[in-house]
Amino acid sequence: MSDIEAPGVAIAPASSVAARIRQRRSEGTGALVGYLPIGFPDLATSIEAAVALVENGVDVLELGLPYSDPVMDGPVIQAAAQQSLANGFKLRHGFEAVREIAAQVDAPILLMTYWNPIVQYGVDRFADDLVAAGGAGLITPDLVPDEASDWLAASDRTGLDRVFLAAPSSSEARLRRAAELSRGFVYAVSTMGITGARADVDRAARGLVGRLRDVGVDGESSFTCVGIGISTGAQVREVLGYADGAIVGSALVAALAEGGVSAVAACAAGLAEGTVSA
Q1: Can you give the pLDDT at residue 10?
Q2: Which band of pLDDT confidence, cut at 50, 70 and 90, is reported for residue 15?
Q3: Is the pLDDT of residue 180 over 70?
Q4: Which domains does the chain have, with CATH numbers?
C-alpha cells in the first residue's frame, strides 16, 4: 500500500480479523465466527442481535447483505434475506448497521456479499464507505481471485480484508491463489453437520484444511476458518481441533427467527462453549 493516500479516504488498520484469530490461538483455542443477515427480522433487531453475538462469545462478525438471488445460501438464510428485502432493505442500511454495531462492540466486522451489488454500487465507493463505517473487510462467495482485480486493488488501497472461498473440489492452483490473496482468513467450505456419513464429511473438511496448509496457509501468519453446517458447541470444538476458526450461520439465523434476540444470544453462548476446551 502506498504511504500517501488520497485526501479524505479512510484507511483500514492492519487486519483486525487476523489479529483476533491470532489472539485466540495464543490462548490455546480458535475463533468463533458468527453470521447474521442485516435487516432480519428488521434493521434495528438485526443490529441488536449482532451485538448480542459478540456479548456471548462470538469473536468475528460476518454480516450478510441480503440479495435477490442467493444461490449459494441454504433455505434458512434465503428466507431471512427475502424477508429483509421485503422490508425494504437497501445497501446503505448495511453501512448503517456496521457503524452502529462497531460503536457498541470491538469485534471485527466482515460483510458477506455477492459481487454484483458491489459492482452496481461502485467498487471503490463501496470500499471507502465500508472503511468509514468501521468494517474490516468482505467475504465474497461468488468472486474467485482470478476475476477479482478491481477488488484486489480497492482492498489494497484501503487495507480491507478479503476472504476468498476454498472447497474440496478446488484445484491445487485455485487453493494456492485463495491462500496467497486472502487476508484475514481463507473460508474453507465444508458440509459439516448434514444427516448421515458424518465421518466422511469430517474427513473432507480436515482434508481441505490440510491441503490449504500445503499451499501456504500456515496457521501463524495466515488462517483457515471452516464453515457450512456447523450448529453445536461440540462441532465447533471438533473443527477447532484442526482449523483456526469455526463459522456458524444457519443455526444462529434459525434461533433469531424462532426466539428473537434472547434465543440467538443463548445459541451463541452454547456455540462459544466449544471454543473453551478446543
Answers
A1: 57
A2: confident
A3: yes
A4: 16-276 (3.20.20.70)
Which residue blocks in the chain are alpha helix, DSSP H? 16-26, 43-55, 75-86, 91-102, 115-121, 123-133, 149-158, 172-181, 198-214, 233-239, 250-276
Amino acid at residue number 114: Y
> Residue 162: phi, psi to the nearest 5?
-135, 120
CB 255 within 8 A of CB 232: no
How would you class 251 by CB atoms within 10 Å of its CB: exposed for 0-12, middle for 13-18, buried for 19 or more? buried
With b for 16 or more beta-carbon neighbours within 10 A and e for fewer, the 107-129 pattern comes to bbbbbbbbbeebeebebbebbbb
For residue 145, give the DSSP letter. G
Confidence check: pLDDT of 100 > 90:
yes
The three cell numbers locating residue 114: 455477492
* Contact call for residues 139 and 163 (beta carbons, < 8 A): yes
Entry pTM? 0.90
Give the span between the Cα atoms of 8 and 29, in whole angstroms: 39
61 contacts 49 by C-beta, under 8 angstroms? no
Give the catalytic positions in this structure: 62, 73
Q: Cα(209)–Cα(230) distance, rounded to whole angstroms?
A: 16
Percent of the chain with pLDDT over 70: 88
198 pLDDT tier (thresholds 50, 70, 90): very low
Q: What are phi and psi of 110, to 5 degrees?
A: -105, 140
Q: Is pLDDT at 4 greater than 60 in this prediction? A: no
The answer to whether residues 65 and 117 touch, using CB atoms and an 8 Å cutoff, is: yes
- The whole-number average pLDDT for the span 58-81 is 79
